[in-house]
Design a protein that fits this description.
The protein is an alpha/beta fold. The protein contains six helices and ten strands; from the N terminus they run E-H-E-H-E-H-E-H-E-E-E-H-E-E-E-H. It has one domain (about 1-210): TIM Barrel. The protein has helices spanning about 10-20, 40-50, 65-75, 90-95, 170-175, 195-210; strands at about 1-5, 25-30, 55-60, 80, 100-110, 125-130, 160, 180-185, 190, 195. Strands 1-2-3-4-5-6-7-8 form an eight-stranded parallel barrel. Strands 9-10 form a two-stranded antiparallel sheet. Helix 4 links the parallel strand 4 (about 80) and strand 5 (about 100-110).
């Protein structure tokens, strides 16, 4: 199982994730999010992570593509997550210019949303998340969609499940749909944007039964 914890800002949280063998940490470049990170904060985290096995992921929501290119270049990002409504030409432009891997979010509410599974090309991972309402953030809403919609689906790319995952429900995911990866954020926070090392530790104890 691949694990990614999104919305990190503190070195102590990053170290806790690395200790629990988390594969990726997400840094959210989205000003409306309580988990928004500045360029300098991101640079510090990336530098700190160089001695760890955990890999950085830049998370963007309909970001200006020219600014995105600057951030990718300056931070030498090898993974980015596109968590908005970015289209194929946007994806292709990034892929043609940089040697990196792209995680693309797909919002799921009904079976009709699943038609988008094979819509995008030139991406490396899919991430399925709760479909936000008009007044909600693009992610990190602590809400779950109907995971059973993904049961039996033929998905060619490796994929993450996201949205409202926490210590109380994480064991159900493998039993129901067995994704390639699990993406966490609000489920390991003590308050919006503030990660809890205790919750991170407890979640992995629960998942691995130790």
């Amino acid at each position: 199982m691949i694990f990614k914890i999104c919305g990190l800002k503190e070195k102590t949280s990053l170290l806790c994730c690395a200790t629990n063998k988390v594969d990726f940490f997400g840094m959210i470049f989205y000003e409306k999010s309580p988990r928004n990170i500045t360029f300098d904060e991101a640079k510090n985290l990336i530098n700190f992570s160089k001695n760890l096995t955990i890999k950085p992921v830049g998370v963007f929501v309909n970001h200006d593509i020219y600014d995105l290119k600057k951030i990718i270049t300056s931070l030498k990002l090898k993974y980015i997550q596109l968590h908005g409504d970015e289209n194929q030409s946007y994806i292709d432009e990034i892929k043609n210019e940089f040697k990196l891997k792209i995680i693309k979010k797909l919002s799921i509410k009904t079976v009709n949303d699943l038609k988008n599974i094979n819509y995008f090309k030139n991406i490396d991972y899919l991430l399925f998340d709760y479909k936000p309402q008009i007044n909600e953030l693009p992610g990190g809403n602590s809400k779950i969609f109907d995971w059973s919609l993904l049961k039996g689906q033929k998905i060619e790319l490796p994929w993450f499940i996201s949205g409202g995952i926490n210590e109380s429900n994480i064991k159900n995911i493998q039993k129901l749909i067995n994704p390639n990866g699990i993406d966490l954020s609000s489920g390991v926070e003590e308050s919006k944007g503030i990660k809890s090392n205790t919750k991170i530790n407890n979640l992995f104890k629960k998942f691995y039964d130790y």
